[in-house]
Amino acid sequence: MKKLQYEININAPANKIYDLMLGITNKSTYEKWTAEFNPTSTYEGSWNKGDKMYFIGTDENGKRGGMIAEIAENKPSQFVSIRHYGILDGEKEITSGEQVEKWAGGHENYTFNENNGVTIVKVEVDTMEEYMDYFNNTWPNALNKLKEIAEN
Q: How far is residue 123 from each of residues 3, 63, 98, 114, 137, measured CA to CA in Å?
């Protein structure tokens, strides 16, 4: 797996960005910035350390799918680590086999560093080579959308 990193400066306090990014107060803020990945992006679960989380959306046929993950760490307004370990195919959870083995155990980490009202949001993503171009195009757009939400 390859580790990709993305960073953006946002003119807002870390606690506000953390809340908006994870959709803590209002899930729609999470859905707005993750719409860059899939217009129907949402999550089911909670952000507490150790909790199971579904990151889901629907495809062009309306079929539900996505990632199954565990919240490996959550230090509010500082650091969040998500460990992906399976995929959701409709209502079926797939946590082993060829579809999952290539990337299972990969992490997605968010770090928030605030200085004088400006927060640097750093995202680190483990991915397979075949998704690098997609992420390199989509993550910057998603972070720009988060910035737009946080600064308005």
A: 10, 28, 27, 15, 14
Mode of pairing for the β-strands spanning 2-10 and 118-127: antiparallel
Q: Whole-structure pTM over 0.85, yes or no?
A: yes
Domains of the chain, start order:
2-49+72-84+103-151 (3.30.530.20)
Residue 93 CA: distances (Å) to CA of 90, 97, 131, 152: 8, 12, 22, 38
Closest CA relative to residue 138, chosen from 56, 59, 35, 64: 35
Q: pLDDT tens across 63-110, in order?
A: 999 999 999 999 999 999 999 999 999 989 999 988 788 777 899 999
Burial of residue 143 (number of CB atoms within 10 Å: 0-12, 13-18, 19+):
buried
Whether the CB-CB separation of 17 and 117 falls below 8 Å is answered with no
